[in-house]
Amino acid sequence: MQREMKRWENIHLTGVNRLSAHTDFYRYREFSEALTLNKEMSKGYLLLDGEWKFLFLEAPEFSPLNFETKDFEINSLDSIEVPSCWQIHGYGKMHYTDVLYPFPINPPFVPQDNPTGIYFKDLILENIKEEKIVLKFNGVDSAFDLYVNGQHVGYSKGSRMPSEFDITEYVKNGSNRLTVRVYQFSDGTYLEDQDMWWLSGIFRSVELFRMNKNSLEDVYIETSPDEDYKNFTLKLAGKFLTSEVTEMKANLYQKDEKVDEFTIEVEDGKFQVLRNMVNPLLWNAEEPNLYVATLEYELENGEKEIIPLRFGVRSIDVIDNEIRLNGKRIFFNGVNRHDFNPTMGRTVTYKDMLQDVLLMKKHNINAVRTAHYPNNDVFYDLCDEYGLYVIDEADLECHGFENTGNYNWISDNELWEKQYVDRAVRMVKRDRNHPSVIMWSLGNESGAGRNFTAMYDAIKEMDSTRLVHYEGDCVAAYSDIYTTMYTRLNALEEIGKDSEGKKPHILCEYAHAMGNGPGGLTEYQEIMRKYPRLQGGFVWEWYDHGIQQVDEDGNVYYLYGGDYGDFPTNGNFCIDGLVFPDRTPSPGLIEYKKVIEPIVTEQIDLNHLKIKVKNRYDFRNLSGILLHIKVKSFDQLIEEKTVSLQSINAQDEMEITLPINFENALKYDDARIYLSYLEPENTLYANEGHLITSESFLIPATKVEKEYISKALDAAMKIEEDQTQLILENDQFRTVFSKVHGILLSYQINGEEIIQKGPELTLWRAVIDNDMYKKDDWINKYFLKNAKEQFVSIEYQLNEGSVDVEIKKYLSSVNQAWGFNLIYHYRITQDGVLNLHLKGEKVLRGNEIPQMLPRIGISMNLNNEYNDVTWYGRGDSESYQDSKRSQSIGLYRKSVEEMHTDYVYPQENGSRCDTSFLALTKGNQSILFNFKELRDFTIHNYETNALEEAKHRGKIEKSPYNVLTIDYRHSGLGSNSCGEEQLPKYRVQIEDFEIGLEIRRIHNEDLIEESKFFRAR
């Protein structure tokens, strides 16, 4: 029996009565209004956003009889905000998947349980004359039927592209009823299996246009260069709704200055003109120069209309196997971006989009891939204005087919060709006037096949001025560049080497920014900069797709897949961004800003204050950029000044001698030079003084070599012991060791307990998302989480002025033959100084050993009244060994609470790398932890177990003590939730190790001097 194909399952329909796609433009009556580019001031424009009546159904078949008629009673229905996603308002079910379709794969058919929303809007229209009235839906998921006053106007699908309908013959003066029936699932859903929440409804703005029946229908702009890229030819082309208009006046403006004017002839409603632009200001992401063209024409009724068109003069080509903008090779430091808002889902505001663009520019990002569909149209205006290269991606992803074993099921099926091509054509026709769009993308993760060839050909027929890419095209047959994703470093280097006669390469996705990470960004940047064929990449992704919630205490947290009972789901895989859901930058974004810095500083000879400054901009000269110089010794400022950089052309470098007093700096310990590159004046995206990037260097001759300085004190020590405890004490201190477990149970100074338990060796960290493919072995095969110390022996020796305690132990875990022999050597002095040296010797027996440990470190529980942390190391944000370049070495202060990074999904966080010492403070007293080598540390007011048990922000159970962990080594972060694993040099192995430190009480004002020596050897 043949199943009946419903309209929303008909692959042969791309729409019914939907108008042809065209570029966005607006009509104005006056020049002053036109030059504002404010569409709300335009002629005949009406925004229909706001409250609509709403009826939610489990399937279209349950629609009430005559629901589309004007007499259908709607007053008692619910109201819903347009635009919005109905699941956010409690209708239907929230569901997140990355790859899987949420229904059986049986194309083109969709489930009978097909959630449906019917929207109603009563609209008053007055003074309807001989005009054309167009209703525009900017985004509706996934398909919909439109009715006006009881009549069926049309049907459309393709969720993230506009759909326009001519409703002129359906409306009348007075009240009119708009009825829109929206289907969550359609045959188009098979093409919209992107990694995101399944959200439905009218999620972008609805607009109405009242226009003259002879008005302009479409217009597009192209610019092409001469051979020297000095002069460009401007092409203006388009068409009118009729052939009544025969002439237009055109003016070109650059900012407020008119730079050209000319007349355009219109024949049979169509026009095309070529105009030479002599030495124009060119558009690029670093210098986004824009022009405005105004087209003025007179209508049959004597009215004038003015059309403003903002454009940039630029070219994009592949020349000599390089991607070149305006003839110059460019490099992409990009991100992938979804439209998303934590309270509105796929509905985004102008403020959201502007904030995204400003954050990207401030963090040195120069490119965006609109993953994986055309974004809200306003976003492209912002990219034009502020300067971001855009890969504009078609609303096309068929990822779920990969799991069927036939990835190309519909991509290589000619019956679907019309659907594929429709999505490409509508994207290009909407966005082709944006200079920021330099590349079209055919979609994402949809296999390969003939339909992509058809898309490529259709795009090139409309627009031959841009490049086309598709990552699934492994041989670049229908792609102008070679694109891969999550390519590991070794393979990426091979691509870089294999350059002769090959198309240029970009990574459309890499460095999966999920949870704590990504790590290893520096190595990617080094490889991509090393080989000319490699022209950069796009980090996955911009922000965490968390759904905002507020608990009973007013604390904000975010939900992810599975929190709504949705199954199957990919859980927190949607929490994978460089910014948190509230658009706060994560440590990953701070690190990315540094790694992709456009100004690189290298030391040449600091004894002569010589550095090298490399300009990695593609177009911008560094002339005038402010170089702010500070020389500091710990927290003491030695010297400070600001100079302006000389001319350094893009991609050039220059040696500079720093203008500071070197002889004076040599008088100080650990004198460091801090360099900050600042914007000299306000820019579009940042204020004067905005930090572009920074660097710091230690003056080698001033490096502190910590010494041993004894302190004589006549304070006899008393030693007590019984079967279970060893107690050492005098008037200054008291230490208690367990003779059963071989652990320090208590360390008191002047009657106040400082250490409540520890130190103990730990190999474990709370699992980060990038550990997801290792954690099962770590937990269930090697039982690293359960690694325990086994007591072997304890001995002590009374010396003159101190006591030595030596504890031998063995550490391993359940059913493991490998482990560590441990020797804890404590020296406690008469004045209560606790000096520890831990030596670990690896024991390798058997063949089953982990290839990587999370960490090797010691953990101890501390008095939580000492809640202020001062450290000399990297800061002030967190850092890990493969993600630390953004954090300069210096003296930093925070509370213990501030040492926590509040990831949406709680996990290991807060490490500070390369630390020389730290101090915990209460009042005017501090406890100094002085390290014998540079160490990484974390300190938190919770246990690791509590961190792992918490699944959301604000849900971590606090402990009655602070937990300090000092690492011999801590494995890097990597990007292996989807990308590269931790690189070998950042992996902790089963290896011999030593950790040395000293703990003592000091006065706050003595911290710096006390950190320069040890009291006990």
TrEMBL record:
Reactions it catalyzes: Hydrolysis of terminal non-reducing beta-D-galactose residues in beta-D-galactosides
Domain of life where this protein originates: Bacteria
Keywords: Glycosidase, Hydrolase, Lipoprotein
RNA-binding as UniProt keyword: no
An example Gene Ontology biological process: lactose catabolic process
Any single Pfam family the record assigns to this protein: Bgal_small_N
Signal peptide span: none
Entry's Gene Ontology molecular function annotations: beta-galactosidase activity; carbohydrate binding
GO cellular component: beta-galactosidase complex
Keyword Lipoprotein in annotation: yes
Beta galactosidase small chain/ domain segment(s): 727-1000
Class of the enzyme per the UniProt entry, highest EC level: hydrolase
EC number(s) on file: 3.2.1.23
PANTHER family on file: BETA-GALACTOSIDASE
Family of the protein in this entry: Belongs to the glycosyl hydrolase 2 family.
Name of this chain's protein: Beta-galactosidase
Organism the protein comes from: Peribacillus loiseleuriae
